[in-house]
Each structure stands twice: as C-alpha cells, then as structure tokens.
Write a structure and sequence with these properties.
Layout lengths: L1 H50 L11 E4 L13 E14 L2 E16 L2 E14 L1
Antiparallel strand pairs: 1-2, 2-3, 3-4
Length: about 130
Amino acid sequence: MTLFIIIILAFLGITMVNLLSSTNQSVVYEVLGARAKMAAQSGVQRLLSTTFPLNSPVATCSATITSSAAFSTGSGLENCSYQATCTTTQVVKQNVDYNYYRFESTGICRANDIWASRTFELDAFEER
C-alpha cells in the first residue's frame, strides 16, 4: 500500500513539473510575440512619419528600412529587429487620382533558441 501511494505521488509530482514547465514556455512565447509586434509597429511608424510629415506635403514612398540588430536605446526590445517596406501606387477611380500607400513591417525577437516573428500591415489612400 505504501509503495502504491509513493508511485501515485511521484506521478503527480512529475505531472506538476511538466505543467509548470509548459506554462513558463508559453509565457516566453507570448512575451516575445508582443515584443515582435511592437518592433514591427515601430518600423511602420518610422515610415509613416517620413511619408506623412507634419506641416509638409505628403511624399511618395518606395523604400525598405531595416533596424539595427537590436534596439540599443531603451529597454524592452532587446534582441529585436524589424524590416519595413512601403510602396506607392497611383490609382484612378471615377476620374479622380489617388495615391495608394502600402506599408508592411516584420518584427523579429529572439531569446536563446526561441524566435518570434510578427508582421504588421497598413494601407492608406491620398486624393491628389
């Protein structure tokens, strides 16, 4: 009877250790995913600020920018980077000229052997 109780308690202990381990790993994935999303948004915001500057005319955009290997100024986005692109396409709809802007950025964060990647896209129209 004692041996049976020891075996049952050992299985319960192993189950709890596995449960805690998988919970910790899912938290790491969630945090890295959130950081990768913020890195991607940073890339889009950087392109948006150059395309739509305050108190200046709107510029056409056909560029690709890449962040440094890591965000060195500030905490929270260490080991993260982004690559952002924008394109401008001229569109005519019902005899009205428009500029169609497409912004896309991919943020990547890593922690040891775990990598997370998120892509952020944004579209905008401007009547010319």
